[in-house]
Amino acid sequence: MRASQDSFERKDDIGFLSVGELGSVYRDGSLSPVDVVTAALERIERLEPSLNAVAYVMRDAALKQATDAAADLQSRRDLGPLHGIPVAIKDLIEVRGAPTGFGSRVRPPAEATDDAELVRRLRAAGAIILCKTNLLEYAYGIAHPDVGQTNNPHDRGRTSGGSSGGSAAVVAAGIAPLAVGTDTGGSIRIPASYCGIVGLKPTFGLVPVDGVFPLSQTLDHVGPLARSVTDAMILLEYLSGQPFHLSQPSLEGVTIGVLSYHANSRELTAAVAENLKQAIKKLEAHGAIVKPINIPLLASANSELRKIIKPEASLVHRQLYAENPAGYAPRTRSQIEAGFSVDAVNYLQAQDFRLRLRNAVEAQFTDVDVLVSPSVPFPAPIEDPEFTEEGEEGEMLSSGFANMTGQPSISLPSGMDGHLPLGLQLTGAFCHDAKLLQIALGVEAALAAYTRPSI
Q1: In a 10 Å sphere around its CB, with 0-12 CB exposed, 13-18 middle and 19+ buried, how is residue 144 labelled?
Q2: Distance of alpha carbon 77 from alpha carbon 71, whole angstroms
Q3: Rounded to 5°, angle at Cα 239 from 237 and 245
Q4: Domains detected in the chain
Q5: Tens digit of pLDDT per residue, the chain (455 long)?
Q6: How far is it, in rounded angstroms, from Cα 229 to Cα 200?
Q7: CA distances, 376 to each of 82, 121, 251 (Å)
Q8: Can you give the residue ranges of the Amidase domain (predicted)?
Q9: How far apart are CA 409 and CA 428, in angstroms?
């Protein structure tokens, strides 16, 4: 019995190894990709369906890839840090041989005949495509009742967030070290905050969206979810096709601008407000220079974002809606219907607003290195909040503006409210993803706030 328990605990721990740790044990022969994929598949079987994070398991294909990767590494054919590393893919991204379901019932899931460009890049790097992950329907703000919401690994009575909740949950739960999500108004960073992991929305256009079903073509981003900044950086390298490098973490002399509109919002719970205050103190203690930043346009960022996302999403869904409107969840359908009636002048004015907002935010980087906000104004709720909140910003309080501006933005674990994680969001200058990641590494080291769920 003790031997069996030891084996179980070891497999449990395998799921929480970092990319670097997995690479080390692969190359010294103490573990193989087959061991890791087998442990991941067993963990899926144990945690599903109560977690409800996984839409489709690529069991046979993943084991085949793992066997091939093990043979390659044994024969010293080494493709780099992702060789033999399991990666989960959000179920609106095409993966050859796997059905794409979009979290919907408008159409039956159809097997993809080709990989999305980002998946091709991962395969070329030797990554193992482990599974497809659940999402809010078409990434548009509601879980279809036939699919259900993905539950939080820290408390399965609460949501993991959306729309990339499945991707965040499989990483937080130790099923896979890495996952890919999409972000149109916070859909990577919000679930990352709720689940206590790292979620990065890169600069707009850095990661290709070929083979990724769109929600809003001028707001959509694709990015990594991981348990550390370093792992997120490694995945971003291969998603983007661009090299990144991290040096030793340091905040000495880094100037951090705290966005007053987010930090002083009345929507922050007392725990989130206190967590932000304590996080800032820790950053100052590690050498950061902190100053408040006031950007009046932030007060309109999310309302203007909705004027863009609604008609763009409705255009994307025009044919699907005509085919089978009853296949949508009622709230998704009502959002699509609302988008058909958005006035063209309002849409164009919102596009003009986003340019002014980008210029206003970008101007701050002459005086600061990074902008800081609470990732979400509250910890994970029981259910996913409504996409729109009359008179409130809701969970998009801090996140939506960076989709409007296209600037890179990352959520990091910053502490706990009881047993529920909280997050700190950092936003960098346009196309300065490398600088943002380096500062995030320093913040991560200063806060040391990652907490493994008891699951």
Answers
A1: buried
A2: 8
A3: 10
A4: 1-455 (3.90.1300.10)
A5: 333 334 445 667 899 999 999 999 999 999 999 999 999 999 999 999 999 999 999 999 999 999 999 999 999 999 999 999 999 999 999 999 999 999 999 999 999 999 999 999 999 999 999 999 999 999 997 999 999 999 999 999 999 999 999 999 999 999 999 999 999 999 999 999 999 999 999 999 999 999 999 999 999 999 999 999 999 999 999 999 999 999 999 999 999 999 999 999 999 999 999 999 999 999 999 999 999 999 999 999 999 999 999 999 999 999 999 999 999 999 999 999 999 999 999 999 999 999 999 999 999 999 999 999 999 999 999 999 876 556 689 999 999 999 999 999 999 999 999 999 999 999 999 999 999 999 999 999 999 999 999 98
A6: 9
A7: 31, 32, 23
A8: 35-437
A9: 6
CB 245 within 8 A of CB 282: no
| pTM for this entry | 0.97
Two tokens, residue 391: 């008179």
User: Given the structure tokens 């320093």, which residue do they identify?
Assistant: 442
* Placement of tokens 């890919």 in the chain: 180
Q: Which residues belong to the active site?
A: 90, 163, 187
